[in-house]
Design goal:
Strand order of the largest sheet: 3-2-1-4-5-11-9
Number of helices: 7
Radius of gyration: 19 Å
Number of strands: 11
Order of helices and strands: HEHEEEHEEHEEHEHHEE
Helix content: 25-40%
């Protein structure tokens, strides 16, 4: 079987049902509230007939918003290992298309070097053993010479717990501290096997991009609004519940620990505590030809 026809292995730790898609879209709008843009202002305006790829597109919502704001001659294409969370094709704008692709595999030959811009967001949870180089090698093959990458991940280096009013010790918040570890630390199951790999590599994304041959690498950080802190924390609760549902079929003891963590975090959020995790946007350019 050829690379482009190989059936992908889906190790997604979340769900793909209606509630999970609603969580993805809720998360998307909260990120947009924090960022305030779709394409970073440092990226030059797309020219006529430009092509844009959204890798790990999820529900496709970012592409649909880009389609609304750009000329119809801009071709927009979304890729994901599963297209289950997309709306019905009758809802797609005329210049938007989707194709299954597992970014752990080489990009299909017909798509290599064909995009002016590639966008990726929140792929960290899918990366095992800090193997970002192999993924980036596949993703960058989509880009034309001189094309741009826009990559968005939580800025875990600066994650903090905002304690409730009149609290002085955030260490007494076991739910949110559990979430903080779950976001970036390695997680082992009851049998000692690694279920989630450490995401601390994302603190070195600029270096990773330069090592892959990207130029003009820049990092931009954006803070969520404190008035929206509770909403952002709910996203962590919902994501943890989806992960817990998976663990109920694999590791009941770990699922119970997650259940306790979620219940504690929900109570702490209701008391006014929340998890602040700035959003980082990395912009990089492929070297031009010649």
């Amino acid at each position: 079987m050829s690379e482009s026809k190989r059936q992908p292995l889906d190790n997604y730790i979340f769900q793909r049902n209606t509630n999970a898609t609603a969580r993805l879209n809720y998360q998307y709008y909260l990120w947009q509230d924090a960022l305030g843009f779709l394409l970073h202002p440092s990226i030059p305006k797309l020219g006529p007939n430009a092509r844009v790829a959204d890798v790990a597109t999820g529900s496709g919502i970012w592409l649909f918003d880009v389609a609304r704001d750009c000329p119809a001659d801009i071709k927009l294409m979304g890729f994901d290992i599963s297209l289950q969370q997309l709306p019905h094709p009758s809802h797609y704008p005329s210049n938007v298309a989707f194709q299954p692709w597992d970014f752990f595999e080489p990009a299909p030959e017909e798509l290599r070097g064909s995009f002016d811009l590639v966008h990726i967001r929140l792929i960290g949870v899918a990366i095992k053993n800090e193997d970002t180089g192999a993924i980036l090698k596949n993703i960058k093959r989509l880009l034309k010479p001189g094309g741009y990458l826009q990559w968005e991940e939580p800025d875990d280096r600066n994650i903090t717990i905002v304690a409730p009013p009149d609290w002085t010790d955030s260490s007494q918040l076991p739910g949110l501290n559990g979430f903080k570890d779950l976001i970036s630390e390695e997680l082992k199951g009851s049998n000692g096997q690694t279920i989630l790999h450490s995401r601390k590599w994302n603190q070195n994304i600029p270096t990773i991009l330069r090592d892959q041959g990207f130029e003009d690498v820049e990092k931009f950080a954006y803070q969520e609004r404190p008035t929206h802190g509770s909403f952002h924390t709910v996203i962590y609760e919902l994501g943890a519940e989806e992960f817990m549902a998976l663990m109920l079929t694999k590791d009941e003891a770990l699922a119970q620990k997650l259940r306790d963590m979620i219940d504690n975090a929900r109570q702490e959020n209701q008391m006014g505590a929340w998890l602040s995790n700035p959003k980082a946007v990395y912009v990089a350019r492929m070297p031009p030809e010649g």
